[in-house]
Design goal:
about 240 residues; alpha+beta; Rieske Iron-sulfur Protein; three-stranded antiparallel β-sheet; 6 helices; 9 strands; about 15% strand; binds FE2/S2 (inorganic) cluster
Length: about 240
């Protein structure tokens, strides 16, 4: 008996603990608790929707679409603003400033440059040599037109028709960009009577053609024209 009572007692204890779980589902208390849970869940859901967070149980299709629309519109709006911010500086940079435009061309009065003389001027912040060749120098330059040269060119190809005595070149050595001597009075003119670059020993002739040394090409002739017999426009 004692054994059966103990057994029965031990069997009743789990039954009492388990009973509330099983019976509770059928009781009003549990039902009430379930309603509260649902209500609480419902409240949470509505709160989430009210805060703008979509929830499938509330408005799965509409809420999602509206959210995507908002994201797309926001992305396009920011892209548009970003594009404008990037494009404006680019356009600003592409338009040349007034001082650059002013340097695009220069006019030089050459009336004071006597035959046999040369001057240095500047154009676009680069040195420019303007040389008034003596008739003998023109003849000498033409006589050497067909000499072997690293960068063959005739005097006529480097001057304007009717103005073969005026040699206009950049004063920039085509080797590494030094400024050759020979334009100013008393400067070394090199072995060919034109210009000499002491940096590495390049010699240019009376037409500014490279004749000796490491420079690969002739002194560059910029675009220029005669506005009158005594005024040259460079650029
Ligand atoms: S820069 Fe003129 S010879 Fe080198």
């Amino acid at each position: 008996m004692a054994t059966s009572k103990k057994t029965g007692g031990s069997a009743k204890k789990p039954a009492k603990k388990a009973a509330p779980k099983k019976s509770a589902a059928k009781t009003g208390v549990k039902t009430t608790a379930t309603d509260e849970s649902v209500a609480a869940a419902d409240t949470t859901t509505h709160s989430a929707v009210a805060a703008g967070v979509p929830h499938e149980s509330v408005d799965p299709a509409g809420g999602e679409v509206r959210r995507r629309d908002f994201i797309n519109i926001a992305a396009v709006s920011f892209a548009g603003v970003g594009g404008a911010v990037v494009v404006l500086p680019l356009i600003s940079q592409m338009s040349a400033s007034a001082d650059v435009m002013a340097l695009a061309s220069v006019e030089v009065d050459v009336s004071a440059i006597m035959p046999g003389q040369a001057i240095k001027t500047t154009w676009r912040k680069q040195p420019v040599f303007i040389r008034n060749l003596l008739p003998a120098e023109v003849a000498q330059a033409k006589a050497s037109d067909k000499d072997p040269m690293p960068d063959p060119q005739t005097l006529d190809e480097r001057t304007l028709p009717g103005h073969e005595n005026w040699l206009v070149t950049l004063g920039v050595c085509t080797h590494l960009g030094c400024v050759p001597t020979g334009a100013a009075q008393g400067e070394v003119k090199g072995d060919y009577g034109g210009y000499f670059c002491p940096c590495h020993g390049s010699h240019y002739d009376l037409a500014g053609r490279i004749r000796k040394g490491p420079a690969p090409s002739n002194l560059e002739v910029p675009k220029y024209s005669f506005l009158s017999d005594t005024v040259i426009q460079i650029g």
